[in-house]
Amino acid sequence: MKPAIFPLGDSAINITFGNVIDDSIHQQVMHLYNSLIDLNLDGVVDIIPAYASLTVVYSVVQIKQLTSNTCYDYMQQKIATAFLLTAEKRLHESRHISIPVCYHVSLAGDLVMLSIRKQISIDEIIRIHTATMYRVYMIGFLPGFAYMGKVEEKIACDRKAGPTGVPAGSVGIAGNQTGIYPLDSPGGWNIIGRTPLRIFDADRNEPCLLQAGDQVSFHPLSLAEFETYQAI
Amino acid sequence: MSAVVLKAGLLDTLQDGGRYGHQHLGINPCGVMDSLSANVANILAGNHAMAVVLEVHFPAASLQFTTPRLIALSGADFGATINGEAIPGNTAIIVNGGAVLKFTASVQGARCYIAIRGGWSAEEWLGSGSTNLKVKKGGYHGRSLQNGDEIKNRTTEKQMKIPMVVGSKGYVALPISANTSPLYTQRNFRCIAASEYDWLDAESRQRLVDSSFTINNRSDRMGYQLSGSSLVVENKEQLLSSAVTKGTIQCLPSGQLIVLMADHQTTGGYPRIANVISADLPSLAQMKPGSLLNLRLVDVQTAEDIFFEQQYLLEQIRVAVLKKFKQQNLL
Lengths: 232, 331
Fold this sequence. Notes:
The structure holds two protein chains of two kinds.
Chain A: E1 4-7, E2 12-16, H1 23-39, E3 44-49, E4 53-58, H2 60-64, H3 71-87, E5 96-102, H4 111-118, H5 122-131, E6 134-139, E7 146-149, E8 164-166, E9 170-174, E10 177-180, E11 185-187, E12 190-194, E13 215-221, H6 223-231
Parallel strand pairs in A: 5-13
Antiparallel strand pairs in A: 1-2, 2-4, 3-4, 6-7, 6-13, 7-10, 8-11, 9-10, 9-12
Chain B: E1 3-7, E2 12-15, H1 35-44, E3 53-56, E4 62-65, E5 69-77, E6 80-82, E7 85-86, E8 91-95, E9 100-103, E10 108-116, E11 150-151, H2 157-160, E12 171-177, E13 188-193, H3 202-210, E14 212-215, E15 223-228, E16 242-243, E17 248-251, E18 257-260, E19 267-268, E20 272-276, H4 281-285, E21 292-297, H5 300-327
Parallel strand pairs in B: 13-21
Antiparallel strand pairs in B: 1-4, 1-11, 2-3, 3-10, 4-9, 5-8, 5-10, 6-7, 6-9, 8-12, 13-20, 14-15, 14-21, 15-18, 16-19, 17-18, 17-20
């Protein structure tokens, strides 16, 4: 599909490849993202990949010094250049990150409900959730919050009607996506476990553990292992 | 130390131009709501345009300065006084140690900016001193100021060259000021149609520009919710989350609009109808809940032209102020 290009105000440009969660579309987003990173354009302040779109935020003050056209036209041209680079199929290797999760019901407020609603045992939910290699489609909502998919239909579940308080590290399911709350936050995802890893730590050199394009898998921890992990 | 917070206000945070370069990680930029006022306050304090300023809402913090300082206020008129005497906004002011700055009334605007020579000293996080309230980083311990907090400026005493003020008032307003009114607009906010503009039905597209909207009480640094004629999204698809930015106008499932402001999240899943142009965002940041506004669609070229005209006016202010500082031998 030919991407649609729109201005998002006068300081950002949005490239949309469609409106479906699809690995090949997301691959295109990530190719364009990586090409733009490689181009290292002056005046670009942020490049934000999402499920099926990419947004480039730029400084008009800086871009204006580089062009006599509008800054928007200039950015459009640069994005066209990045597309040409993308055509060369420049592959950036994606990282694989394995995340320990404790699925004990004391840390998983919605696990029993999910088991009842989906007519599937808790052990089977854990087996299915840990059997899949997920793709991080995007980071958003909160610092470091990774939207991952796809969750197998057998354990997919619509988000809850209203938000409740969710502790940091909580692993949730919403539709066929899975995600981890990086901070204590109100949230509506169905919580099925918790990781002792710090998904977001403002004082770390790289505050966010995950980024778009990462491959993520989960492995189960017992409650005792979880507590030992947390103590470290 | 430069100042002590005698009484904290509603929301007093240290902010700069924002924390960019991390939005792909969900880390939102924050930064000043009204960049023009912040720029002007800094210019009048002899700083670079985006030095760290104190952004206050009404009721605003009362501050006591501990040493002579050059300060300037810009943005909202909150009836500022020093030692009980009204002081002008958009003016360079020298305060003595012991001088007390208080705000007495919400006269006009929503946010006032207090700049100090050298810039306020803020904790930097990822290259910016802006306060991120959600992550609790940057600014002053990542939070709004509280009673008894001691805030400093960045420059050393030697660099300051601030003479003590003679007399009992404890301050002097210098003959260095700026007229910021040409930088602001009142009622009509210009925007550019965004990716999902076409998702509205034809009638709603007309209502978007024909009807007035009221900024309601659920409005803060994250976003302004607008009350007014309900809009209809014709396209019933569920939009996949995608990036949003300052000024993005989203249409909520209720048909009401929200305009994202400085503390916006990096992504959102509501249709993006339009985006307020950069030049009009500072004016919007000064609109209080209850104010009426109208939206006007312009193209990108027009938005850029308006922005650069505004930058030119700002540059004129900067050059004029700099000249006066030199005449006063204060730089």
